[in-house]
Write a structure and sequence with these properties.
Layout: E1 4-7, H1 13-26, H2 38-46, E2 55-60, E3 63-72, E4 82-89, H3 98-112, E5 118-124, H4 128-136, E6 140-151, E7 154-164
Parallel strand pairs: 4-5
Antiparallel strand pairs: 1-2, 2-3, 3-4, 5-7, 6-7
Length: 165
């Protein structure tokens, strides 16, 4: 499997939405309860239109199998040097190193950005693959927020990780 990593194109939005909505319905990596719409995902795409908030995709044979994004952490100006990391992988391609390659590239982009200083990740507790991925890249565990969301019939904790770049 030859993975190509590149910046997202508008034609990739629907594939990214499908990956995300699978997790909305079947998983707990996101605590969204309702699938997102294509219109909402176009807004998501547009909100990442500056160089400090990229979205990258991983493709195999031109099919998107995963993506990573750096989003604004908070809207107040004091937080402009901090971004929130998200990585989602198509369910058929998990455990094959795709997330590792996307993480490496998105962190390289963050380090190359003169504005960015801190990459924060909020993970639903119990996601061992994501926890190990963040630890492998040197993220610091910053704490647990207990029972912050309710999904699939149970309260969910989140864990926060941060990496100074």
């Amino acid at each position: 499997m030859e993975l190509e990593i590149r910046l997202i194109r508008e034609t990739d939005i629907e594939a990214c939405l499908d990956i995300y909505n699978y997790e909305v319905v079947h998983g707990v990596a996101t605590l969204d309860l309702e699938p997102r719409t294509l219109e909402e995902w176009h807004e998501w795409y547009d909100s990442h239109s500056d160089e400090h908030h990229p979205i990258i995709v991983g493709t195999v044979d031109d099919a998107v199998i995963g993506y990573a994004s750096l989003s604004p952490y908070r809207l107040k100006d004091a937080f402009k040097s901090t971004v929130e990391l998200s990585i989602y992988i198509h369910q058929e391609h998990r455990g094959k190193g795709v997330a590792t390659q996307l993480m490496a590239r998105i962190l390289e982009m963050a380090r190359e950005d003169d504005i960015l200083h801190n990459v924060v990740s909020v993970i639903t507790a119990g996601n061992e693959g994501s926890t190990k991925l963040h630890e492998r890249f040197g993220f610091t565990y910053c704490g647990l927020t207990p029972e912050v969301g309710f999904k699939h019939g149970t309260y969910r904790d989140t864990e926060t990780y941060a990496l100074l770049v």
